[in-house]
Amino acid sequence: MAERKEGEGKVVVVEEEEERRLRGALRNLQQEAGVLERLVYKHRNQHHGAAYFQYLLKVRRDVTLLLAAGLGDVLTAVFPVLASRKPANTILTVNRQSKKKPGANHCHHERLLGVARLLSEMLLDVVSVYNKASDLIDRKQSVKISIGGAQIWKMLKD
After folding, report:
1. How far apart are CA 21 and CA 27, in angstroms?
2. Are residues 129 and 62 in contact, defined by beta-carbon separation less than 8 angstroms?
3. Which residue in 43, 72, 85, 122 has a CA-CA distance of 20 to 30 Å to 56?
4. How many whole angstroms separate alpha carbon 69 and alpha carbon 112?
5. Residue 78 is part of which domain span?
6. Closest CA to 29 of 119, 133, 111, 120
C-alpha cells in the first residue's frame, strides 16, 4: 500500500464519514417511507379530496420511485470512485450482464442522473406539502410534522 500523508488521511476520514452519513440518511428515508405509506393508507378515505393529501400522494409516489431506483447500489458503486479506490470508468460503463441477474445491465452513472432528476422534481412537491401544512396551521387547524415521522392531524377549533 502507498503511504498516505497526514492531510490525505483527514480527507479519507471525511469521505468515510460522508458515506456513513448518507447511508444513515438512506436508512432513515426507508423508515420514513414506511411511515408515510402507513399514514396515507390509514387516512386515504377521510382526506382523499384535500389538497395537502394530494401532495402527500405525489411525495409518496416519488419516494417509492427513489427507493426503487436502488440508491443503495448506486452509493456502493460511487463511493469507492470518490475515495479514489476505483477508477471512474467503473461507474460510467455498463455492468456485465450475468445469467443470475438478466435485468442488471445498466449504468450507475445513468441511475445516479435519474435519481438527481427525481430529487429535483420531488423538491417541488415537498415544498407544496410544507406550504399547505403551514396554511392549515395559519387557519387555526393543527398540523404536526415531526422529524421522527410525518404525523398529520386536522383538528377543528372548538
Report:
1. 10
2. no
3. 72
4. 9
5. 9-94+106-150
6. 119
Q: Is residue 127 part of a domain?
A: yes
Handedness of CA 96, 23, 147, 151 (dihedral sign): positive
For the chain, how many structural domains are there in total? Answer: 1
- Structural domain contains residue 30: yes
| 51 found inside a domain | yes
DSSP 100: S
Each residue's pLDDT tens digit in the chain (158 positions)? 333 445 555 666 777 888 888 888 889 989 988 988 988 888 887 777 777 788 788 888 888 888 888 888 777 777 777 777 777 666 666 555 444 555 555 677 777 888 888 888 878 777 777 787 777 777 765 545 554 444 444 443 33
pTM: 0.58
The three grid cell numbers given for residue 139, joined into one nine-digit string: 387557519
Q: Do the domain assignments include residue 124?
A: yes
